[in-house]
Write a structure and sequence with these properties.
By secondary structure, the protein is of the alpha/beta class. It contains nine helices and seven strands. The protein is 35% helix and 15% strand.
């Protein structure tokens, strides 16, 4: 049973009195439990990106006249389409960072609900981008798996949590060029299931260059997948 807004606000006020929390976006006191530490106003500012983007990798464009980016024309990625809720900026970026790097696991529910507005086009299976054993030990959870679980539960699409494994640790992708990212991930993933004839939705939190999505998609296609669509919360890039 859903609590009325005034009850949720009172609970947030009491919790914030006992455990003070401030919104990482505007620095005001947190006034909602569901989306904490973000305040209600900053969470409501998260909107789906509706501007022009590449039909293949989803990178945002400045012009509506373009349909496919030069990178995808010259080197088509193994996935057929990328669906991202928004751009990796402002409140959405702060929410993802709190969830992913600060261990605020409860955010997987409202963040996962954002993915429900994306249509994976009749996907037969949801596969989260995996972490290595060491990465999982350090973080304590796989953010992509929590997001995929939320979508699976709400949409009724089968979740194949062990469909992919990360067989070796890789260097952090931050600061690497697109070519360096691809080289860093070479041989890092392996498909553990037979996906023959299945349409797979690969779930991740953020897409930057697409190197991780490409490496995972190649393994899924190698395991027989008919098609791979990428679902992410945010796409990095400047329109």
């Amino acid at each position: 049973m859903r609590r009325p807004p005034e009850a949720s606000g009172l609970i947030a006020h009491l919790l914030n009195h006992l455990f003070p929390s401030r919104c990482p976006v505007c620095d005001s006191a947190t006034d909602t439990v569901r989306c904490a530490p973000l305040c209600r106003s900053c969470w409501s500012s998260i909107k789906r990106y509706a501007g022009p983007s590449c039909s293949r990798c989803g990178v945002p464009f400045a012009s509506r006249d373009a349909h496919t980016c030069s990178a995808c024309i010259l080197h088509p990625p193994p996935f057929s389409k990328t669906l991202s809720y928004g751009l990796y900026e402002a409140s959405l970026a702060e929410a993802i960072n709190a969830f992913k790097f600060k261990g605020v696991r409860r955010l997987h529910r409202p963040l996962g609900d954002l993915l429900l507005s994306l249509d994976p086009g009749g996907a037969d299976a949801l596969v989260p981008v995996p972490l290595s054993l060491e990465g999982l030990r350090l973080r304590g959870f796989n953010q992509s798996l929590l997001l995929a679980h939320r979508v699976s539960r709400k949409r009724g699409i089968a979740l194949v949590m062990d469909g992919l494994v990360k067989v070796r640790d890789t260097h952090p992708q931050i600061g690497l060029s697109a070519r360096e990212r691809a080289a860093n991930l070479k041989g890092a993933f392996r498909a553990e299931r037979d996906f023959s004839g299945k349409r797979v939705a690969l779930v991740d939190d953020v897409m930057t260059t697409g190197a991780t999505a490409a490496a995972c998609s190649r393994q899924l296609l190698k395991a027989g997948a008919a098609d791979v669509v990428v679902l992410t919360l945010a796409r990095a890039g400047n329109p």
